[in-house]
């Protein structure tokens, strides 16, 4: 079995956490080659070569591969597909954009967001917002898969695979990048942070989200949010945790003013320890919380911030 | 320009899903079904394009069991002009895979020649997040996924996408497939008069075979199980007690 793992690269930099977690799943399927593709990808390729267990890294640098535009990236992956039984990627928004396109071009059914590898053909994946786990066996000649990183530990570093430079495929020229709006932050990334502090509608305003951020900063944590908090403009979209946002599984997840709708739980219920702070003792979030505190968050969160550390 | 909106009939998002004890799937008998929430957003966007004079016809299409008619009537009541039902299964427990759905949709697109297909980003039952991208691939069209803003301007569309790092704006050539995210718009409710009017709007019925598509699955469902339950936790009485517990657990 030969596996092509698509490295997660943002602006030329390897997302080591996502790629190394996907590597752990990929290794269970066969011998792993990593593809580093982008407008600039050489540094990321060199970094990916250090992930333990990687056999080889292919590096494709071309302007058409910048910003991970779906059509040109999919064309490149499809041009390489003949050599592989599995084409896999961490389930980031970039991969969710590209991989179903790759699968359709190869006449394969994509297997999205797997949380377990049973064998090289059989995989587990959550459905219905994580209310059920389905085990599926693929009959396709090539398996195209995205991997839920929250459920796999990162592969170690310390490898030294060779890097081979390859060309891009023809650019179909169907789309062009215009701009990115990315907030600069010194905080850890949401999907790899050891601690996440999240706020919901109960926080009440963008201004008051600062008390959530203050607690996060005290703990060197990432900040998350419920959909209601994002929809209301208290928090940016990339903070959304849940069925249709990011899936996190930190050591500690602190939910403040979040009721615990199933769509939110889908994104955080595999966290090791869950703390809920909510003034409604009936809130469903308490059913998954290891430690529940029935309190007004405007009192409890600042007090917690002050008493920690 | 004609806009095609694929809408899926799914379990209502408020329903607590039950896994069948024999591991054969999720119980959908006598459960409230609704239009996939993302597809309501797609229908809304299509209607707004028509109201803005950028589209002249909105066609809703659904693939699945006969009961998906109801979902299409909802789209018609919201303001779609006509609907196409492609019957591809008899049993409500049969989910048609995105690859097969995309192939059938390709057949519909070839026939209808829309300038734009507006899909939901994800069906909340199978959580695949794949159909729009697959259709775009089969058509050889451009794609713009997870849209929170769509601006159509002649032969191109400028789309802002919700991505892991924040927001990305791209410009795609038309015709295109756009998949919509939660914050694109707030879908309207159908008014009673519009629900009545929708009963008279045209709804064509087809089968997968009409498009020459074999809808049999590529993924064999080995089993469906409940996720592991979390052990029950405790309530703490104060912030001090919480801090103590977290220190004991070694996480702070
Ligand atoms: C298709 C679809 C996809 C979705 N995807 C997601 C997703 O990915 N992520 C997600 O989070 N949601 C998602 N949702 C939305 C989800 O169903 C809920 O609506 C949402 O999670 C609710 O957010 P919330 O808990 O912040 O708000 P609410 O449910 O309104 O809860 C607010 C809570 O704050 C508490 N509170 C209020 N004031 C205070 C105070 N002063 N102190 C302490 N507690 C207080 C209240 O008691 C209440 O429990 C999705 C919904 C749909 C239909
Ligand atoms: N059976 C179906 N009938 C009509 N549209 C569908 C169907 N399945 C998926 N879609 C469309 O594709 C989107 C993404 O679905 P999925 O790829 O299954 O997550 C949905 O939001 C719908 O717009």
From TrEMBL, chain A:
Keyword Ribosomal protein on entry: no
Tell me which residues bind FAD. Answer: 201, 226-227, 240-244, 257-264, 278
Q: Which domain of life is it from?
A: Bacteria
Per its UniProt record, the required cofactor names are: FAD
Name any one GO molecular function: electron transfer activity
Statement: the UniProt record of this protein carries the keyword Flavoprotein: yes
Pfam families the UniProt entry points to? ETF, ETF_alpha
Query: Can you name this protein?
Result: Electron transfer flavoprotein subunit alpha
- Organism of origin is Pseudaestuariivita atlantica
From TrEMBL, chain B:
What GO annotations for molecular function exist for this entry?
electron transfer activity
The family database entries (SMART domains) matched by this protein are listed as: ETF (SM00893)
Residue ranges of every copy of the Electron transfer flavoprotein alpha/beta-subunit N-terminal domain listed in the record = 23-215
Q: Which domain of life is it from?
A: Bacteria
Cofactor(s), by name? AMP
Q: Which SUPFAM superfamilies does this chain map to?
A: Adenine nucleotide alpha hydrolases-like
InterPro entries documented for this protein: ET-Flavoprotein_bsu_CS, ETF_a/b_N, ETF_b, ETF_beta_N, Rossmann-like_a/b/a_fold
Sorted alphabetically, the Gene Ontology BP terms of this entry are: carboxylic acid catabolic process
What Pfam families does the record point to?
Answer: ETF
For this UniProt record, the keywords arranged alphabetically read as follows: Electron transport, Transport
Coiled-coil annotated residue ranges, if any: none
Subunit field text: Heterodimer of an alpha and a beta subunit.
| Function, in words | The electron transfer flavoprotein serves as a specific electron acceptor for other dehydrogenases. It transfers the electrons to the main respiratory chain via ETF-ubiquinone oxidoreductase (ETF dehydrogenase).
**Family membership:** Belongs to the ETF beta-subunit/FixA family.
What is the protein named? Electron transfer flavoprotein subunit beta
């Amino acid at each position: 079995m030969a596996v092509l793992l698509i490295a997660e690269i943002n602006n030329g930099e390897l997302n080591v956490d996502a790629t190394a977690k996907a590597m752990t799943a990929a290794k269970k399927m066969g011998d792993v080659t990593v593809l580093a593709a982008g407008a600039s990808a050489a540094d990321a390729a060199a970094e990916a070569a250090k992930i333990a267990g990687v056999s080889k890294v292919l590096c494709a640098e071309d302007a058409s591969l910048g910003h991970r535009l779906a059509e040109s990236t999919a064309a490149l992956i499809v041009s390489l597909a003949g050599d592989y039984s599995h084409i896999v990627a961490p389930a980031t928004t970039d991969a969710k954009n590209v991989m179903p396109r790759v699968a359709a071009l190869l006449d394969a059914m994509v297997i999205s967001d797997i949380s377990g590898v049973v064998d090289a053909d059989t995989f587990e994946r959550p459905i219905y917002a994580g209310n059920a786990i389905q085990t599926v066996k693929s009959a396709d000649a090539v398996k195209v898969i995205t991997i839920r990183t929250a459920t796999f530990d990162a592969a170690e570093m310390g490898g030294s695979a060779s890097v081979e430079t390859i060309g891009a495929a023809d650019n179909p020229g169907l789309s062009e990048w215009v701009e990115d709006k990315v907030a600069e932050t010194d905080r850890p990334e949401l999907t790899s942070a050891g601690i996440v502090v999240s706020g919901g509608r109960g926080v009440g305003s963008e201004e008051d989200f600062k008390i959530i951020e203050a607690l996060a900063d005290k703990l060197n944590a990432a900040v998350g949010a419920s959909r209601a908090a994002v929809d209301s403009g208290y928090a940016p979209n990339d903070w959304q945790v849940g069925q249709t946002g990011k899936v996190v599984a930190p050591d500690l997840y602190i939910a403040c003013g979040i009721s615990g709708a199933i769509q939110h739980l889908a994104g955080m219920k595999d966290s090791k320890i869950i703390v809920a702070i909510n003034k409604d003792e009936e809130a469903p979030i308490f059913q998954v919380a290891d430690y529940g505190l029935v309190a007004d968050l405007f009192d409890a969160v600042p007090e917690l911030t002050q008493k920690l550390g | 320009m004609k806009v095609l909106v694929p809408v899926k009939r799914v379990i209502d998002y408020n329903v607590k899903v039950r896994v069948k004890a024999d591991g054969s799937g999720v119980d959908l008998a006598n459960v409230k079904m609704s239009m996939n929430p993302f597809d309501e957003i797609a229908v809304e966007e299509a209607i707004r394009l028509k109201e803005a004079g950028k589209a002249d016809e909105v066609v809703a299409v659904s693939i699945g069991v006969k009961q998906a008619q109801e979902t299409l009537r909802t789209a018609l009541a919201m303001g779609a002009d006509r609907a196409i039902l492609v019957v591809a299964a008899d049993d409500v427990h049969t989910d048609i895979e995105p690859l097969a759905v995309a192939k059938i949709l390709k057949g519909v697109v070839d026939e209808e020649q829309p300038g734009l297909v507006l899909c939901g980003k994800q069906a909340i039952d199978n959580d695949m997040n794949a159909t729009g991208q697959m259709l775009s691939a089969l058509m050889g069209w451009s794609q713009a996924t997870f849209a929170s803003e769509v601006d159509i301007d002649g032969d191109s569309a400028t789309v802002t996408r919700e991505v892991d790092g924040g927001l990305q704006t791209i410009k795609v050539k038309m015709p295109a497939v756009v998949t919509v995210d939660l914050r694109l718009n707030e879908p309207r409710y159908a008014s009673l008069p519009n629900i009545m009017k929708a009963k008279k709007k045209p709804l064509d019925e087809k089968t997968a075979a009409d498009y020459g598509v074999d809808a049999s699955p590529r993924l064999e469902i080995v089993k469906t199980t409940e996720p592991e339950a979390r052990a029950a936790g405790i309530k703490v009485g104060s912030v001090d007690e919480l801090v103590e517990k977290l220190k004991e657990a070694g996480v702070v």
